[in-house]
Each structure stands twice: as structure tokens, then as C-alpha cells.
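Give me C-alpha cells for this 106-residue protein.
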Amino acid sequence: MRSLVYLGWVLLLAGACAPLEDEIQEEFDAYVAERNSCAVTDDCVIAIADCPLGCAVAVNRVHQADVESKAHELVADYDRGGQTCEYRCAPTVAVCTEGRCEEQPL
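Here you go.
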């Protein structure tokens, strides 16, 4: 019985410590900013994110898997706190503009 009470408290505290949307967005933006440099458009790809981080981001192709993994981790932390969101995404392409990969609508 004591272990069930302890587990209940742990789950309650974990939910109370869930990251806020603004916090995970700032962390993700900083992570992406370090991984979106480019020389030409062929350097850039679309990395899938998820709500609340946006649908996708443009990054250097060598970092696509890392960025998608980071997005998945942050969204999972956000969801564990009982928060959810959902939105529709429009298709985009990645282009290199002034040394940075950026999304542009199709």
C-alpha cells in the first residue's frame, strides 16, 4: 500500500514539473539554431517536429535525425504533463537563405 501512495506522489509531482510550452519552444529553437547553417539549398531538409513545436523546421541535412529526435523528446515531456495540442500543417520546403536553412510554403 505504501508503494502505491509513493507512486501516486511521484506521478503527481512529475506532472507538476512538466515543462511549459514556452520553455520547450525556447529549448528547441536554440537547438535548431545550432543546426541550420547551410551553403546551398541542397544542404537543407525539413525535419518533422510536432505540436507544440510547430509542424516542422528547416535544418542542415546532416542534423535531421538529431533534430527530429530532440523534438520527439521535448514533445513527450510536454505530453507527460497532461498537456496536449494539435494543429494542421501546410507543406513546406527547405531553402538556404543567407547561410541559414529556412522553411518556405510550397
